[in-house]
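explain this.
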Amino acid sequence: KRKKHHLHLCTIDLPLTTCFNCIRTMDTTQEYEEMSPMESTDGPIETTKLVRSKAVTAAEQLHDPNQEAHERERVGDDENILSDILTTGASHSSPYRPNFVLHNFILLSVLFSANHGAVVSCLSLSTAKLGDLGNWQSSVLYLFYTLSALFGATYVVKSMGPRRTITIGMWIYCVYVACFAIATIFPTVKKAAALTGAAVGGIGGGFLWTAQGSYFARAAEEYAVASSSSLENSTAFFGGIFAGIYLTEEVAMRLLSTVMLRWGFSWIAVFVGYTMVAIGAAFLMIFVPNYPISEVEKRRNDSQSTFYKATVTFRLFLSDPKMKYMAALIAPFSLVSVFVASFVNGEVVRVALSDSNSTYIGLLTSISAAVGGGMSIVFGLVSGKIGNGSILVIGTSSFFAIAVLFLTNPNLENWNIYSLALVYVLQGIGRATFEGALKAEFALVFQDKEAAFGNISMQNGILTSIGYVLASSIHCPKEGTYCVEFSDHRLHNVLVFELLIVACSVIAVTGYHRAKSLYNREREEIEMEARLLGEDHLL
């Protein structure tokens, strides 16, 4: 469509809040064609400012009596500049059919969930089977998980691609699962096996979750284009699918220990079984197709230094104020995970159910995963109507309720199978929002996929590591209402931890609304840029 002396700004909603713009300055003899854009690393606001600067220059030229002569001299340079300023996607079409993208993502989710299900099953048993060593092992796991996400994971994902990085992370995770079998078979090397496996597994975890987030965002984008649906709906849909599969398989993995023990198998057989599942899932990843990066992304990656790629996660945390507020949503999830693993699994179940052999832990923790899987599907279906914000508030309220239950009923002997089941149900609801809505929101709000999901891993790792250190370190002088004697015969103060969860849950809700406010303000500024150029009907 050719327009004489007209400046045309087209703004389209595309992935990760990026404002995709195409500028054309047209007259009877010269026209700017659609450019091949390149994704900006400065975010939508800075991109829009650059676009406006170029647009204003072009608009001024329309009133220049020597316009055609100037345009002939500048058109070549302007095309090159604009192709570097603008982001990809305006004319992007997916080479894949919607069903191919969907089935591929489901296959990835199944294999990923089987591998990680074995990991979290062993993690939930660490304190019960290894005592205080289990807390320190989990702390080491999350410490190296944090360091990996902070300094290396984004570099590996950007260099090798998300699918290959997921496969590498899954193989590394196999080492962590195997360390439980080694520690059980050879008690003399239990400490060395537990801590070494945790350090290696933490590195793999940082790779795995950062790459999973990147792959998830790419798959949702391809599906949105292939099915002609909005990115927001596609992201919420895929988030619900992944969380449902992930938590459902976790149910099976957690139940495996209870079933095998009931059938007379030993703990050695249980941990060997988990190891075989993790290895099998990692091997089958060869059947998962990859989404190749575009030429634009390749050029951008090639232009970035190794140091930049390795530290982009931390750079995003420092440079984008939204990230600091979104981090508050991760704190309740991380702290409740530690609270349930170290205190509820390790002590409350033992006292309330007289379960010194940890037989019921697999059954009870599977409740959390089952509820999480079911609620993930529900949340995925209703997210388009109530929004991710409402879902995140529901999840945070569930974490808040867990702490309140123990604050109001601190006597462990008063707990029974039904009240304990309620705790795991609430944790499952909260986990569903973390695995689905939270990650969908990160994919929507932040432009750099690897950096955004690297921040989830980094923040979760830091908070969980701190949580396990606190769980092992907060002692009290004498036994009382909130001063509980653990199986290690030391007195632990659980009140501090419970109050910390309550405070973080309140801060999480306010932090999210602040981050969303900043995001909406960015969108409004982008829209204002378009209206100033007289094309608000195209927004």
User: Anything to note?
Assistant: Residues 158 and 301 are 7 Å apart (CA to CA). Strands lie at 6-13, 19-26, 483-485, 491-493.
